[in-house]
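Cont'd.
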Amino acid sequence: MTLTTTKSVYWKGVRDGLPFILVVAPFALLFGVVATEAGLNVWETLAFSVVVIAGAAQFTALQLMQENAPTVIVLASALAVNLRMAMYSASLTPHLGATPIWQRALAAYVMVDQSYACSILAYERHHDWTPAQKMAFYFGAVTPVIPVWYAMTVAGALIGSSMPAGLALDFAVPITFIAMIAPALRTLAHQAAALASVILALSFAFVPFNLGLIIAGIGGMIVGAQVELWLNRRAKA
Amino acid sequence: MTDPQITTATLWTIMILLGLGTFALRFVFLGMIGDRPMPDWLMRHLRYTAVAVLPGLVAPLVVWPTATDGVLDLPRLAAALTTLAVGYVTKNVLAAIFGGAGMLYLLLWLMG
């Protein structure tokens, strides 16, 4: 392994990661706007994006804070949205597990859906890459995305304070979430999990402290897992 | 916005704990467990976390919107269904957002 090769793999990662700017930028902008509407100042909004770097979880936390949900519920719900990161972490480990601990820690901090998906697909195509090269690709793939995430959050926060009323921004969060969920409804199991979650959330909306959402989340996961098992049994039969 | 103001202390508590918790989730296997595989039943449940939590968060916001004091509202309901349909068919998040927002503004304008 030469330095040049590792460098070229890094730049390959940068090129593969570039298109994700188009996905990340509008989300960051929207988060900045919505956070400002919720009463956060520019500095707090940016800090949120720097500390957490996870759009769906940030929107979840913001929404529940506005509903005055208890801190424990806000954290449990937002972390549940981020549980998929543990899955990514597990599936990246065979590829990146042999790199230095500080690199793995940094890789964990910048782990987002796009960097994970793009890297794991590249690793499947390039079995010959060393762990160092795989890590170089990973950092390459996040290089265009993370600065845009920070910068567009600030842009959104600055625009947000001058946003005219009557734009129905109250509905920006529901639309954004539905737009993220819809493409994820790939299988019957995913669809069943989502439907169960909707029914449970509406049925248990009366439960205090937003616990209805926790019930809906756990119920949805169980339904998804059970439908998957049932589909597997049917496929074998 | 009619929402109550979020206090600075609550905000920072949640921000920092959420940041630490999210980092822990991202680091847990990569940093600590090594390449031991996770049990099947756990992976099977983790696969559905996003589609199990987000719909439950959104459903009450669609059915009982805060902007209308919890009264079911045609433009918002239609916007939600349009977003879902466009997102499901195109698999494109941005197309779904623009479709839903377009429907929302169209109906608000027609009915306003």
